[in-house]
Amino acid sequence: MSDDTLSRIRGAFFGMAVGDALGAPVEFMMPGEIKARHGILREMTGGGWLRLKPGQVTDDTDMSLCIARGICAGNGWDITRIATEFASWLKTRPIDVGDTCRRGIRNFMLHGQLETPPNEWDAGNGALMRMVPVAIYTVSDDALLHRCAIEQAHLTHNHPLSDAACVCYGKMLHLAISGASRNRIRREVNLLAEEFPNFNFEPYKGLATGYVVDTFQTVCHYFFRAKGFEECVVATVNQGGDADTTGAIIGGLAGAYYGFESIPGRWLKKLDRSVAKEIEDLALSLVK
Question: In CATH, what number does 3-286 get?
């Protein structure tokens, strides 16, 4: 692969983690609350409802690392191995884990269940947030992306809107890693909105909740209007709501589009060292 492609792959994984760490301290806050406390949040402050250390990540990055470990440990895709990584992680009693993710992982631990039954309440963003390693692993193969995206999603979330968002976001990452233009990436979103009009993000409604549609709309709104990695991520997390997850998702996309070198060095220095080391080890190992 070219140096440019490798930079975009590293940018996607590191971008996801720094977006998570930047947004986590303002999770569940309203934009006005963030403005009153931080002005514009541009630094990894730590704190928030989870009382995080500056640079500490949450379940968005943790679960993405589980997928990457599962792929790299066996030199290929094995959904049982990925589910086992999720189970090992849950046993560590992580600081943050969503209820839907917890339920799906526990069903695997207790019953060996690899696919949660369809549920109209499973349209959260918990499967979308961990798509970066899936997209990197499948970077040259959209058909494989589709299969792997759905398999990993259904471990915890089985809903058509979640499935569609995961596949579309994976394709957007593929395009960004390949150096495609934002107009070309936008066409992928347009195709999604043709099939599922819920995902139309213009005009933007300003909702950044854990509902996968709100999350996806927020990410698209800021990705297609901002200039540069930092502007994308800062604008997104200052929208508040599920800020660690919107931050992680746009960080992955913006990192893939702008490349690793676009990520502010001050954020990379603050990022949890053990997380940064593991990302460095795994990111390029995911490429087939």
Answer: 1.10.4080.10
